[in-house]
Amino acid sequence: MTITATTDRRAAVAGADYVLTTFRQGGFAARHLDESIPLKHGVIGQETIGPGGFFFAMRTLPVIRGLLAEMEELAPAAVLVNYSNPTQIVAEAVTHFSRVPCISICDQSRDDQKTILHALGRPDAQVVLESVGLNHATWSTRFEIDGEDGVTVMARAL
User: Fold this and answer.
1) Which CATH number fits domain 9-104: 1.10.8.60, 3.40.50.1240, 3.40.50.720, 2.40.50.140?
2) CA distances from 11 to 5, 14, 19, 75, 76 (A)
């Protein structure tokens, strides 16, 4: 495998077997709007579904569409591996915009770990989290907080 760094997207795509995306169009300032505007109207604000996900998709999809055109031209056999949210909307759109094969995945379990530790008031705890599966179909096979069973620690905190 050869990995080459470049800031020229066309050069990066040319001849690629796989193209990986991980970008946040609009940055965190736009994410704040995606999540806070729906809340003002009594709707859950979230970046992957609902109004927030739609707002985010409207910024992300034009970039994806341009990338797909470059892939069709410069790497017609390449597979798009998308990590950019809203992953499910991106995957659906790819099927409408292009014939490029797409795998759209999420690294959710790492965020879950941070959320749990924050809720427990132990953000600096040592965690062992082993998960199996892919995307949102994952489950933990081992979960420890500071050497103790994580579920037991969570149950005590309730």
Assistant:
1) 3.40.50.720
2) 10, 5, 12, 11, 14
